[in-house]
Automatic annotation (TrEMBL):
<keyword id="KW-0547">Nucleotide-binding</keyword>
<keyword id="KW-0067">ATP-binding</keyword>
<feature type="domain" description="ABC transporter">
    <location>
        <begin position="14"/>
        <end position="245"/>
    </location>
</feature>
<dbReference type="InterPro" id="IPR027417">
    <property type="entry name" value="P-loop_NTPase"/>
</dbReference>
<dbReference type="GO" id="GO:0016887">
    <property type="term" value="F:ATP hydrolysis activity"/>
</dbReference>
<protein>
    <submittedName>
        <fullName>ABC-type multidrug transport system, ATPase component</fullName>
    </submittedName>
</protein>
<keyword id="KW-0813">Transport</keyword>
<dbReference type="InterPro" id="IPR003439">
    <property type="entry name" value="ABC_transporter-like_ATP-bd"/>
</dbReference>
<dbReference type="Pfam" id="PF00005">
    <property type="entry name" value="ABC_tran"/>
</dbReference>
<dbReference type="InterPro" id="IPR050763">
    <property type="entry name" value="ABC_transporter_ATP-binding"/>
</dbReference>
<dbReference type="GO" id="GO:0005524">
    <property type="term" value="F:ATP binding"/>
</dbReference>
<dbReference type="InterPro" id="IPR017871">
    <property type="entry name" value="ABC_transporter-like_CS"/>
</dbReference>
<dbReference type="InterPro" id="IPR003593">
    <property type="entry name" value="AAA+_ATPase"/>
</dbReference>
Amino acid sequence: MSPDSQSPPLAPALSVRDLRKTYDNGVQALKGVSLDVRPGDFFALLGPNGAGKSTLIGVISSLVNKSAGDVEVFGVDIARHRSEAMRLVGLVPQEINFNLFEKPFDILCNYAGFYGIPREEAMVRAEAELKRAQLWEKAHVMSRTLSGGMKRRLMISRAMMVRPRLLILDEPTAGVDIEIRRGMWKTLREINASGTTIILTTHYLEEAESLCRHLAIIDKGTIVEQGPMKALLAKLDVEGFLFDIDGDVPTVLPEIAGTTLERVDDHTIDLEMPRAMDLNRVFAALEGANIRVRSMRTKSNRLEELFVRLTSKEGQ
């Protein structure tokens, strides 16, 4: 095949280059952010509160004006061709921002109308989206009567009315229980499988790991890590265990490379180690120090704590 006959490479779904945002009060929310999201990807944007996630999403969706840098959506510059770019983007914000005294069916149809979609077509789409979100039975009741999880699903349905090529979800499952969350995961997987590129912000590590293939971690306005999910989660993926031992914990504990071993009390030891590490190494070292483990239990780590591990060098 000759070079002239080869298909041109696809433009990234999102291309961000040296993006900066300084607010009027002097706060630098973004300090030169660069990242790419591939077409069809399910991409996680993670970071602690105040890291710059919301500002970055605001700029991408044209709700916040950038101070410097470039942003393109499928090759369309959001500054030079804002209307064209925004027709490619669907946004589901954290806050419930539809009229609670409107019915879900009307909310979806009216939203489509803002984008010039004929009423007849909007009605067909609204029925399809409400059925996909398992909200069709609630199509003609006041939205204020919906549960929190239903309202979240309605917001996703509304964004999908314009068939966006890029769907941005800002903490879409915040405040809903795990059963509802998993139901929403199923819907999001279906949307992604149909060809829609998704960017997700979340504080739930399990959610990001379950849904996303690539991720970027933002902290203090800069991207501190980005790449394939499996490779980067290996850096975050720390397991914690508590060992109950026979007898008293010795004054000096054995040193085991890659782990942190600390005394909790007279009969308990705290261990933190990479998930990929073989636990038998730990048991062998403890046995060599004449420490006999009677029982063990796992210790959970919050995502915020893992970010502190990753970004602690930034603050030094």
